[in-house]
Design goal:
The structure is a single chain. This protein has 258 residues and is α/β, with parallel strands linked by helices. It has two domains: 1-74 and 163-176 and 188-226, Rossmann fold, CATH 3.40.50.300; 82-160, no CATH class. It has nine helices and twelve strands. The protein has helices spanning 45-52, 75-81, 97-102, 117-129, 145-158, 175-187, 199-202, 222-225, 228-235, and strands at 7-16, 19-28, 34-38, 60-65, 68-69, 82-85, 163-167, 191-196, 207-212, 215-220, 237-242, 251-256. The strands form three sheets. Strands 6-7-8-3-9-10 form a six-stranded mixed β-sheet, with helices on both faces. The protein has a four-stranded antiparallel β-sheet with strand order 2-1-4-5, covered by helices on one side. A two-stranded antiparallel sheet has the order 11-12. Helix 4 packs antiparallel against helix 5 (145-158). Bound molecules: adenosine-5'-triphosphate (ATP) and magnesium ion. The site of adenosine-5'-triphosphate (ATP) has 12 residues, from helix 1.
Length: 258
């Protein structure tokens, strides 16, 4: 059986100022899977996403993109494979919303491949997908936090990559837009890694990786991993899974530890 390798991490560690912020992370993404990254503040989720994207270099270990060490792959080629939405994504330039999304097409453009209809369509479609089609000509700097976040998701979507890395892409969004971004994530055929704090959102992933102090403490299907025992150990809260009155996945009930 042939194995399609997308993104593999082997023994990845990072130390900053003598402090270990990631240690010995081993992970192979399954093509098309949605992997949720869960963990307390400072547990290493954003650092791990940065390493997966080739933006942060690990001190030891290796990241492989399509079976090749990512450090040997040019930035443009990486950007044709991996799109990212950073936790505090922003732009300092004075751009319109449409121009901000057009940036997502950069890795596909060259002297021999100038901007064309395909790019125009990708941008229009991306803006529509996040419900920002009517904001095209608005100045980016005038957008609300949630609107900016949706434009960043549109920029990554327009990049048309097989891998998407999303760092808390719903943290500024109202509930309608949270659900619509998660529905989009579920619909896409891309391989997606998404850092999350909401356990209910994590339940929608194919697999969940739980991090604590830079280590992977659990990796597997959400209901196998997000047990009340693990949640109380890692997040210091009591958790119960209760049946959802509306049907479908169970829901969490949280209380402080007594
Ligand atoms: N460049 C750096 N210099 C010093 N410490 C750093 C650096 N980058 C990250 N850290 C530390 O590493 C730890 C992991 O940070 P990271 O941003 O990956 O956590 P996180 O899990 O994404 O947290 P959050 O849920 O708050 O977003 C934190 O304690 C952070 O302060
Ligand atoms: Mg983070």
């Amino acid at each position: 059986m042939s194995v399609t390798r997308i993104l593999d991490l082997i023994g990845v560690s990072r130390i900053v100022g003598g402090q270990s912020i990631l240690s010995d992370i081993n992970l192979s993404l399954i093509p098309g899977e949605k992997l949720g990254l869960i963990g307390p503040n400072g547990s290493g989720k954003s650092t791990l996403l940065g390493i997966m994207a080739g933006l942060i270099k690990p001190q030891s270990g290796e990241v492989y993109l399509g079976g090749k060490p990512i450090r040997d792959i040019r930035r443009r080629q990486i950007a044709q494979q991996i799109a990212c939405v950073a936790q505090h994504a922003d732009t300092s330039d004075r751009l319109t919303v449409r121009e901000a999304v057009e940036l997502g097409r950069t890795p596909w453009l060259s002297a021999l491949r100038p901007w064309g209809d395909e790019d125009e369509e990708a941008v229009t479609c991306a803006l529509d997908v996040v419900g920002m089609g009517n904001f095209s000509s608005r100045d980016w700097s005038t957008l609300s936090g949630g609107e900016r976040q949706r434009v960043q998701v549109a920029r990554a979507y327009a990049q048309s990559t097989p891998v998407l890395l999303l760092d808390e892409p719903t943290n500024h969004l109202d509930i309608h837009h949270q659900i619509s971004i998660l529905d989009l994530v579920e619909r896409l055929s891309s391989t997606i890694v998404i850092a999350l704090h909401d356990m209910h959102h994590a339940l929608r992933c194919d697999r969940v990786m739980v991090m604590e102090q830079g280590r992977c403490v659990a990796l597997g299907s959400p209901l196998d991993v997000l047990t009340p025992k693990l949640i109380s150990e890692i997040f210091r809260v009591n958790a119960q899974l209760v049946p959802n009155p509306a049907g479908g996945r169970p829901v969490f009930s949280f209380q402080s530890l007594t």
